[in-house]
User: What shape does this take?
Amino acid sequence: MRSIVAALACLILAACATSGPAPVDPSSLLLDTAFQARAVPASPKLLDASDAMKRYLAEDIAGDLKAHGKLRGLVAALESKAKLKLEYSGAVTRTAAEAFDARAGNCLSLTVMTAALARELGLSVSFHRVVAEPLWTRSGDLLFASGHVNIALGTPLGTDRSTFGGVKGILVDFTPGADLKHQRSQQIAERTVTAMYMNNRAAETLRGGEVDEAYWWARGALMADPRFLEAINTLGVIYSQRGNLVQAERVFRHVLATEAENVSAMANLVRVLERTGKQAESVALAERLRRVEPHPPFHFFDLGVAALARGDFAGARDLFQQELRRNSYYHEAHFGLAMAYYGLGEVRATREHLAAAREASTNTEEQNRYAAKLAWLRSQRWQ
Assistant: This one.
């Protein structure tokens, strides 16, 4: 069983802003002596507007702000390719200033950049967690669950009458094709946004094998918001990766004491119990997990890969389609479906899903790989 890090990309899942039990004393879950010190900021300047951002507002779009008002003018600049020229990039979570300089970021990065610009203009800002199924990705034996966050902007006096899901103002969302009118969301505190950023950085550095640095980012996330269970789960994964299974077990049990059906913590604890020889307890918890989540992440994808390997293209097609019904933006599932259609001789569908894989991929290397395959396919003489 793989370790699950409920983190990455846009937002970390589950009880981000729920009012629940009193927050844990963070120091009781930490183990600083087990990790080498790393230069991780205790309080990252996540929402600080840089001088370049201030100049952009004062010079580059001053005319738009004057003509349309601060709120509408800023939103128009965010939407215009000719203005900010923003690109989605899921490779790393950035602060507001870093995202502005790069003109790129994942949805959390672009959201905090928007917040910093809006606050510089004196606009009101509120952060919202979108209630939706997670997007799953994996790297080696780690699974990453990504959720989504967006932002509502309003005028200081509340004069804008637009309303989205009960939020007065304008809702800004960086996910293409997002259905804003039918979204369910929950407002979250700024401290939670900071914890999400630091937990994302923990997940990203853990993905890169930097366990010591990942610890300090996860520690910072826990200190920023002790109620943010995803940071505690990440901490447990880090302890497990370092081989400190006693502390990992204690951390996962803490999450489950707070949220009894947290599938990430349950799956992680199953593996820890198995590794520590507590087989009966591990089996019992695994059975409970199967009742809560009958089909774990990548269940249908892995079956689809196996079907491809044995040449069952119709079966693979059906399995990859089933995976995409619950993980619609997973680029490898689109690629697998493209290969299944290729095996079935359906060239148009192959092209469509290669293009979808390229669109859903979150880094340049993957995008280039899919683009090359798509270009090769288009070069063929098939109709």
Remarks:
- The chain has two domains: 1-239, 299-379.
- The two ends are 44 Å apart (CA to CA).
